Amino acid sequence: MVVKREHWGTRLGLILAVAGNAIGLGNFLRFPVQAADNGGGAFMIPYMISLIFLGIPLLWIEWALGRFGSKKGHGTAVAVFDYLWKKPVAKYIGFLGVLIPLTVVVYYTYIESWTLLYSFFSLLGNLPSTPLTADVKDYLEPFKNFLVEKTGETSEGILLKPALETYIFFLITLVINLYILYRGVSAGIEKVAKIAMPLIFIMAILLMVRVFTLTSPEGRNFLDGLGFLWNPDFSALTNPKVWLAAAGQVFFTLSVGFGAILTYASYIKPKDDIALNGLAGASVNEFAEIILGGSIAIVASVIFFGVAATATIASQGAFNLGFMALPAIFANIPYGQFFSFVWFLLLFFAGVTSSIALCQPAIAFLEDELGYSRQKSVALLGGFLFFAAHIPIFIKGALGELDFWVGTIGLVLFALFEAVIFFWIYDSKKAWEEMTRDNDIKIPKIFYYIMKFVAPSFLIIILISWVIEYLPSVLSKTDIGTWTARGFLLFLSIVGILIIKFAWEKRNGRTSS
Amino acid sequence: MEGHLLNGYGALFMTISWGIVITLNVYSFYKILYNKSKKQED
Predict the structure, then answer these.
(1) Which helix (H) or strand (E) holds A166?
(2) pTM
(3) Could you give the ipTM of this predicted complex?
């Protein structure tokens, strides 16, 4: 049975859905920490260069691959790569475009559920509350204990023991995601994007205004926070790690390399624009990142805790900033309960619009390649996510391991395959024609060379440097949680390969050509 | 360390970055609206 493919209802809905895919927790937590850690305002030089030479080109490549898939009636890289590269291996490489988002969503939904739990607890006034003390570490301690207690990280042995409410909120989050997906592309994803995206912007602007009107007893105000984030340290520009950090941030923020943009773009009509849509989606995402994301968490932290303490908090990771420092600040300002609720609800909405995008490649794969109905695909996905999520929820070390292989290395690898297969294996001239046809704006010719030479080189450098930097320490881990995650990934890959083999054989002769 | 007010360079970098982002948004949505009205006229 061939399932009729859906289409986006409106252009605005498509752009908001794509922007919603890109706008996630990273815009509000990862970006300000990366910028502050890597030269402040000077970080924006490699950031903007990476945006032009890596982010936008890869974005357009993924959009073009999606529109190509739309023409053929397929929404994942499995079939798209198979059409572009006449080798049997192509479709198996394309499975990365399903495996990566599917695995990321296994743990992303869980983290997303924390934001819903925090939001709910903020509303009820059940987050920790401590009087101001001189030592920041003591002040943050109850908030750290709260997070650890909810996620069960204090438990001994290999098993985590999260609180019952954490598990319940995970189930609620999963059901919300599945319901949106069950409603479909236009009535589900698009409709949610049209509601959630304006709400995200309203809530972020509200928080930004509140942060900009905060002052500390020592007299610090938002100008101190902005100074910490934006005052440039030009010496950082000579450090290659700063350039890699900027490239990595651009890569993560635009959500390229997940395969989700390809799937979303496959629901446009075969003669619709991709250049302007891609640019508009990226612009909305950058607004959320540079203007809103850079004006809330880290600015509030500097005002409240000072520069030195904020640097310490930020160096311990973006999560400490979002889940400890921010609620700690809100606990001591007027109407803090409300602002804390808004902050976590904002993160939840940003999370939902991303997680539904990450789920869609798997749905599209089941619908397009196996001919399953949407209902059956969502039910299968729901069952899988429910069982698979127990790995990061209950097994210590599994989340970090999964995130390394799919959420870090996997993304760069898949983006590299997209660029190389499209511009080197398929045919660069045909790829360029495919990309530049039927657009509302002209993509400058220079991007042909950027897409063919610069972006893949950029990706290879990032991949090699990350492998050198992170792989030895990752491979040295031998605990059960780590091996469970590796085994899970291997299992998923084998199942995926078998399903693809079955699907292609079932089509009776539709081999790689 | 605590005296870390936004300085001239910081303000310049912030203004340029915000300016690029706002310009990109205005340009892309202007083009979308322009194309929409053009298609309606046709």
Answers:
(1) helix A164-183
(2) 0.95
(3) 0.94
